[in-house]
Structures are given as C-alpha cells and as structure tokens.
C-alpha cells in the first residue's frame, strides 16, 4: 500500500477471521502447531501458531488433539481440523478455537483484555518465534 494509506489496522477491520481460516484451509503449505496437546483442560489456555512450510517439510504426524501429538510439531491445518477431537467439537470446534485466537470478543474487550498491553499479547501469541 502507498505510504499513508493504512498506518494502523486491526484484524477485525481488515479481514474476517472466518474468511482467513477458510483461505488457509485451501493452502496445503499452511501448518499449525500448539505448545501442548489440545484437550478439554488445555484448549482455553493454548493458542495455535501458524506457518507456511515448503513441501519437503510437510508433516503427516499426529493431529493436535491426538494422544501421540508431540508439542510444537507442525501439522497441516487441514489434518489438524479433520482430526480435532469430537469432544472439543470436531472440525467446527477447531474453527472456533482458531477464530477465537485471532479475535477478541466483547467479554474480553471489556474484562480480560481491556488495556493496551493486553490486546497485542492476545493477538500476537499465535505467531511463531
């Protein structure tokens, strides 16, 4: 963009998180990982991280909710979604988890993420370092 056209934007103002997820699911290179296996007790405190991997690094390992998942291993976003535990909502539960990590709902905006330092931390935690 030309300088001055857009100097500051929030994800909610630039693209809908559901659209972003739908586009990511169409790209075989997009992979996701989590710092620990996702289950009922970890889903609320564990954020997804995303990365496009070259084809020679594609993984066919365990899904994020499978007991054999090794923390921080990359899994194709498509496989992660398709193997997401039914107890967590299956593929739709995966969608909810991912879009929840990319957005701040009104409860968070007025309660838990109500200061300038808290908002970027919530929205940027999913980016790999």
Question: Mind sketching the topology for me?
Answer:
Layout: H1 11-14, H2 17-25, E1 30-33, E2 49-52, E3 75-76, H3 77-82, H4 90-102, H5 106-112, H6 118-124
Antiparallel strand pairs: 1-2, 1-3
Spatial ordering of strands, largest sheet: 2-1-3
Category by helix and strand content: mainly alpha
Element pattern in H and E: HHEEEHHHH
Gap from first CA to last CA: 26 Å
The proportion of residues forming helix, as a percent range, comes to: 25-40%
Number of domain units? 1
What's the number of helices?
A: 6
Uncertain runs: none
User: What Rg do the Cα atoms give?
Assistant: 15 Å
User: Can you give the mean pLDDT?
Assistant: 81
| Largest sheet entry | 3 strands, antiparallel
Q: Which of globular, elongated, flat, extended, rod-shaped describes the shape?
A: globular
Number of strands: 3
Strand content is: 5-15%
